[in-house]
Amino acid sequence: MKKISLKLKLTLLYTFFMALLTCASLAILFSLSNREVLSSTQSKLENRVQESVEYIALRNGEIRIDSDFYSVARDVYLSLYDSDMYFLYGRVPHGFSQQPELADGEIRTIQDGNREWYVYDMSYRLSEERTVYVRGITSITDAEESFTVTVRFALIILPLMVLATAVIGYRFTRRTLAPVRQITDTVRQIRADADLSRRIGFADEGNDKGKDRDEIYVLGKTFDEMLGELESVFRREQQFTSDASHELRTPVSVILAQCDAMLAEENAFTEEQRSQLVLIQRKAKGMADMISQLLFLSRADQGRQPLHKERVNVSELTEMIAEEQQILADADGRGIQVETEITPDIWMEVDETFYIRMLVNLLSNALRYSDRNGKIEVILGKNGDEITGSVRDHGKGIPADALAHIWERFYQADDSRTEESHAGLGLSMVKWIAEAHGGSVSVESTEGEGSVFSFRFPAGENSPEKK
What we know:
CATH topology of the largest domain: Heat Shock Protein 90
Catalytic activity: ATP + protein L-histidine = ADP + protein N-phospho-L-histidine
Domain HAMP: 174-235
Keywords: Kinase, Membrane, Phosphoprotein, Transferase, Transmembrane, Transmembrane helix, Two-component regulatory system
CATH superfamily of the largest domain: Histidine kinase-like ATPase, C-terminal domain
Strand order of the largest sheet: 4-3-7-6-5
Structural class: alpha+beta
CATH class of the largest domain: Alpha Beta
Number of strands: 14
Transmembrane segments: 12-32, 153-172
EC number: 2.7.13.3
Helix content: 40-55%
CATH architecture of the largest domain: 2-Layer Sandwich
Shape: rod-shaped
Number of domains: 3
Order of helices and strands: HEEEEEEEHHHEHEEHEEHEE
Distance between the termini: 56 Å
Strand content: 15-25%
């Protein structure tokens, strides 16, 4: 199951709590509002009945009613009764068929079918001998229905509010986490390009004093400072490697020259002394090879290792390299055979020296780790827009836990199988050469069955031979 991103998690959390808060607020509001609606309805009923006495007068012994008494204001119907419950004037709402007894100053709830009503009676003395009752009637059901409409409207608006909250929350979260995304992208680019000069780049934005910085911007600034320190350390290491390699070349060359000179004298040394000189010479040659490889990688790291590309028939070149390695295999005396499967006339823009070094390193590794009387297969062909090749051996293979590290410098998957002259730099050079030509190199290996090192180069328009 795919993990939920932090942006989505924060958005869902923010939306959930906002929706919960909104629902709780609306529930409290509706509960209070329902009571307020009923209380307001009762208050309007009382006020309307009390104000209606202004429309009643006694003139010449007769009751006179103003026309406003008949109007329905504030949804209140007014009617006038004598003390014997005899209807005199006014209006009764449609649907109210009951005739409850008079109850002075009391608001009563009357159920009439499916509707509820508030009824309020108030006595009014017109004279010493005559008292009338003003009755006000208003519908509780109508008041509640109007409130119900408001509730339904709120329930319709609620999902839209939740959706708007989610959208706003997502945009806000995305904007807040944008610096984290920038940090992640920068780290990925550094890993892909091995370029420690890259920086996140937002740490110095804003005011000059660095105020109003949040924790993410502080993290970015700290990360940039760490990258600066790592780059400085890496540059010093590169410079040290380059300087040390240069300084070591001269004494090693002198040792080799002196060994050659002394070994050229036939009778100057005993057999034991000569064998010791041969050992010194072999060790010095191993040191010279390692120094040469270190200088190569140091120049490559510093961007000072140029490529001199030219159009080369890599089919013929690969065949020639395989034949030379077969000669070395024959001299080794272990009966290893180098077989080739090469598509003829494949042309490519390539640095010939580097291509030879890459293939020699792969083949020398295959020879080193092949079993006696084993077989090495060299394959080269063209697949669409790519030139592909591989070197396969049928030796002991590479342990699975070592495959991810074999391209690292000085790494040796199995020291017990490694010759003293092997420093663990060859595959690092192979990787750099392939990538410097815009290609790639990979490995597949099964312990006990052998390994396959494959390389790919872009063919482009350079594959066919130009006329």
